[in-house]
Amino acid sequence: MQQLPLFHSNCLTVTEINRLARMTLDNDPLLQDVWIGGEVSGMSHPSSGHLYFTLKDAAAAIRCVMWRDAASRVKIPREGEAVEAHGRISLYEAGGQYQLYADYLQPAGQGEVYAEFLRLKAKLEAEGLFDPARRREIPRWPRRIAVVTSPIGAAWQDVQTVLARRFPIVEVLLAPTTVQGEDAPKRICAALQKADRAKADVVLLVRGGGSMEDLWAFNDELVVRTVAAMQTPVISGVGHESDFTLVDFAADLRAPTPSAAAELASPDRSDLAQQIYLHRRRLELGILSVLRENRDQLRSMTIRLQAVSPLHRLQNIRQQVDDCSRRAEASIRSRLSLQRSHLEGLARVLSSMGPTRVLDRGYALIWTQADDRLVRSVRQGPAGAMLRVQVADGTLTARSEGAENTAAP
Predict the structure, then answer these.
(1) Helical residues (DSSP H) of 214-268, grouped into ranges
(2) Which of 144, 125, 123, 126 is nearest to 233 (CA)?
(3) 14-109 CATH choice from 3.90.79.10, 3.40.50.300, 2.40.10.10, 2.40.50.140
(4) 236 neighbors 254 (Cβ within 8 angstroms)
(5) Which numeric CATH code is attached to 139-267?
(6) pLDDT, tens digit, for every residue of 132-185?
(7) pTM score of the predicted model
(8) Which of 54, 142, 295, 403 is the most exposed place for a label (fewest CB within 10 A)?
C-alpha cells in the first residue's frame, strides 16, 4: 500500500481551490451564456428582493440565484413550474457552491419568443427609436387624456377610477381596441392613430397582466413604430410591474401598471387646489399693486389736469379780475379824492370870488326895479329910476338922482 506524504509543497487552501474553480467556470464562454430548463424547487424570495431556488430534472439539480434588479423584471414562477432560465455558471467561493446566476426566467417553451424579443429590441434600438433624447415631457395639467385599451378589460376600469379620484375635471377619451390575439397589433395601431388625431394632451396605452404570449401584441414591430411616431406624448402601462414590452422603450414614459399610468398622467387635485390658491394669491397681490400704481398715476394726472384745466384758468382770471377791480376801485377812490380836493379848492376860490364874498368887503349889487336887470352902467339908472341895492346883509330900495360926471376910462 502506497503511503501518502504528510506534507506536499503544492498543497492548496480551500479558498485557493474554490477561486481556481470559479475562474475556470468564468472563463468558459459556453457557461457564461447558457439556457437551462427544469422545474422550480425551494423558491425563496427574502426581503432583499433576490431570488434563491433550485432547478431540477429527473436526474439532477442545480442551485440558482437571481439578483434583485433582474428579479424585478420577471414573473416569479410557482413551485414545481417548468421554466427556462438564462444566465451564467459560476461558483460561490465562500460556500463552495456551484450555481447558476440567472438574469432571466420564462415559462418553458418561450426561448424562441424571448430570442425574437431581443432581436427586435436590438434592431429598433439601433435605429434610435429607444433613444431617451426622443422622449417628451408629460404635461403637468392635461385637459384631455386619450386611453388606448380594451373597453371590457380591468385596465380601463382602473384608469377611470384613478382619474376620477385624482383629477375629475379632465376629459377622458377611450380609443377602444383588442389587446390580445392575432389581429391585436393592427387594431392597436389604428386606435393609437385615432387617439393621436383627438388632440389629447397625453395618450395612455394600457392593458392588464398576462404571459409573454398574452402581451406579445405590445412587442409587435408595427405597434412600436406607431408609438414612436406619435405626435402626442405616450405613457405605456402594460402588464404588471415585472412585465416589460418593447412599447415601454418607445413610449415617452413607462408605468408599471395601468393604474400607475393614470397616476403619472394626472395631477392630484389637492396639488391643483394648492396651485389655484397660490395663483389666486399672486393675482390678488398683483391687482392691489396695479390699483395702487393706477391710483397714484390718477392722482398725479388729476393734479396736472387741474393745473391746465379751463376751470383753473377761469379761477385765476376771476382772481385777476378781482385784483384789477380792487385796484380800479382804489384808483378811482384816489382820483375822486384828488378831484374832490381840487373841486373843494376851486369851490373855495370860487366862493372867495363870489358876489357874496365881494359884498362882505363892502361892495353892493344894484338891480333896476322895473325890469330886474343888474345895473352895469350909469345909463341904466337915470334920475328918478327906482333901484334895488343888495349888500352883504340884505337889500335896500333907492332912487337914482342921476349920474355924476366921471372920467372916461
Answers:
(1) 221-228, 246-250, 258-265
(2) 144
(3) 2.40.50.140
(4) yes
(5) 3.40.50.2300
(6) 999 999 999 999 999 999 999 999 999 999 999 999 999 999 999 999 989 999
(7) 0.50
(8) 295
